[in-house]
Every structure is written in C-alpha cells, then in structure tokens.
Amino acid sequence: MSVNRRDLLTASALLLAGPGFASRTSAREGASVTGPRVLCWNENPYGPSPAARRAVAASIAEGCRYPSDEQTQALTAAIARHEGTEASHIVIGTGSGELLRALVLVCARDGGEIVAAEPTYLEMPDYAEFFGVKMKFVPVDAQLQHDLRAMRAALTERTRAVYLCNPNNPTGTAVGATAIRDFVTSLPAGVTAIVDEAYLDFADGLDVRSAVDLVEGEHRVVVLRTFSKLHGMAGMRLGYAVTRPEIAKALAAACMTTPNLLSVRAGQASLADKDFLAGTRARIVASRARITSHLTGLGLRYAQPQGNFVFFDTGIPLELFSARMKARDILVGRLFPPFTNWCRVTIGREPDVDAFLGALPGALRA
C-alpha cells in the first residue's frame, strides 16, 4: 500500500501544470465553492467532454423525439468498434445499473443464488434480494481484494452467477486479468461470470485489464461498462454490456427502459473525444497519487486504489469522521460494513483535493 516514484512524479508534473493542463477543462476550475464539496458519490467532476456537451446542446430542440433506430445502432456500432467486437455482442442500457438488474432476471429468476464479494457494489445484490434470489457474500481478503479461491469454493449446484466488480467498489482494489481468466475457466458451464468494469479506465495495476476477451469463449461471461465514470456522464444514465449474442438477446429483452436521445448522441461523441478522456484520466490518477501519498505520510492504511476514489482507514468510527468532515463542508462516502472505520473519498478537482487534504488531520484528531 505504497505510492511508487512514477506515480509521484506524474502527480507532481500534472498538478504543477495547474488547471490549464488540459486546455478544454472547465473555466470554473478555480471558482469559489458556495456549497459543500461533494466527494461521496464517485462522480467524475471533469466531464462530460466538450464534444458530448456540443452533441447535447445540438439535440435540445429535438428533445421531443425518441432516438431513432439508426441513432441507437450508430452508438452500438461505435461501442463495438471501441471494444473490438461485433454489434451483436453489445447491449445498451440506461446506465450499467439497469443492466445489472436485468442480469438478475436473466440469470437467477429460477430461484438460484448469486455469489459476490463483501463489501461490493450493491445494485445487483439489493435487486436480487428483492426478488428472493439468495446472495452469498464472500469477504474480501487481507488486501481487500476479491478472494477468488473462497468465492469458487462458495459455489453450489444452486449458483447461477458470480458478480465481480473489478475494480471493486468501495475498496477500489482490482484483480489481475490472469487471475480472472483462471477463475472464469474454472466455473461450471451453467454459471455466468458478471464482470463489472465501471472503474477500469482508471486502473494502472499490474495485469489489470478488461475481461472482454473472455466473452467469446466457451464460458458464460458478461462484461459491463459505463459512461458514468471516465466519460463524466453519471447524470445522463448510459452504460452497456458485452457478451455473446444469445445472452445479449436475453439481456436486452429483460431491460425495462431505453436510453434517451441526449445520452445516445453524447455517448457517441464522447467515445470519439479521446484527448479529453486521456487528460481527464491523467488528472484523476495524479490526484489519486497525491491522496495516497498524503495518507502514507499520516501513517494511515488504505486499499490499493484502481478507481476514481480511495478507501482508507481513519482509525475512528466513520460516523464521527464524516461528521467532522461535514462540519468542514466536505462530504465523504457512507458506511460499508464491516469496515466501520474506513472512509471512501472520491477524487474531485484539484481545489477539492486541496480542501480534503487540508481538513484531514484536524478531522482525525478533533
């Protein structure tokens, strides 16, 4: 749980360059803050990209229209090119959250069970339990990573799916592609591996990469991606799944809504705005290194972050720490049992990071 020299040099170079390092970032970067700094929802404060914003602005007058089949197909084709696959492997949803819910219906409506890590993102588990699907949670390991060996051992004849949020939310840790491949190939034929890669664009760990190449293998694999994180479109609700055609067809049938005109056009534009996306990623990763370096200096333990947030041990009850931060106009993440002293803080803009780091020592000891 240390920061390497490369991360620190990258952070220094980018942050010394200041708000103007990416020429197309918001002019409000240094604007005064009138409300609390919101560092609790894992939002990306730098997007949507200028290209996506232009697409939205140009579409306002057509807000009375549904997206046409041609427009949706164009987005699907753009995603397929981005993922190096065919359009028949892609399912678009109103955020990856909708697709997670639809996967409950596809995989486990026969009364089966789903295996997941604890803690992890709860969109799927909460929805599954609402429908009476049994969730079997397996604690993360000592490094706060998915314990794949224990998860494999937890499978029974009733297991219909295994949910892998990679990088994981809230811990931020990621499992390497080799380990995931070995895990997936060990699964029984009827078990679906659901790999949620919402935060993968921020990962830089050894062997951490997408599992999308497993989709066309003999095992049932669904990879989920979203426009909510790197693309900065959390409020526009757009995500997609990559899976083999017969699963894609069933998943599309289980979805209950379709993306709106603005998100369809913005998504296609954002995929093409690669310079902005690269600059946004660089800034977030640099600020992440700043935070972990600071935590190291304070002697605080943290999970090795691979997303746009950091999960760290405050050493005091989170309720108390959160209240102290709120008193300083900073909102941090909620409680994730059983880690009652741990805080999840989102990477904000540089002034937000400055404020967080400045407030941290006082909040720990006040």
Describe the 3D structure.
It is built from 12 helices and 11 strands. Helix 1 crosses helix 10 and helix 11 (318-327) crosses helix 12 (350-365). The chain starts with a helix and ends with a helix. It is α/β, with parallel strands linked by helices. The protein has helices at 5-16, 50-59, 69-83, 96-108, 123-130, 148-153, 177-185, 245-254, 261-272, 274-297, 318-327, 350-365, and strands at residues 37-39, 90-93, 113-118, 134-139, 159-165, 192-196, 220-226, 239-242, 309-313, 330-332, 342-346. The protein has 2 domains: 5-49 and 275-365, Aspartate Aminotransferase, domain 1 (Alpha-Beta Complex); 51-272, 3-Layer(aba) Sandwich (Aspartate Aminotransferase, domain 2). A 7-stranded mixed beta sheet has the order 2-8-7-6-5-3-4, sandwiched between helices. A two-stranded parallel sheet has the order 1-10.
Helix-strand makeup class: alpha/beta
First CA to last CA: what distance? 26 Å
Query: Given this structure, which CATH class of the largest domain is correct?
Result: Alpha Beta
* CATH homolog superfamily of the largest domain: Type I PLP-dependent aspartate aminotransferase-like (Major domain)
Strand order in the sheet with the most strands: 2-8-7-6-5-3-4
Described by the principal axes of the CA atoms, the overall outline is: globular
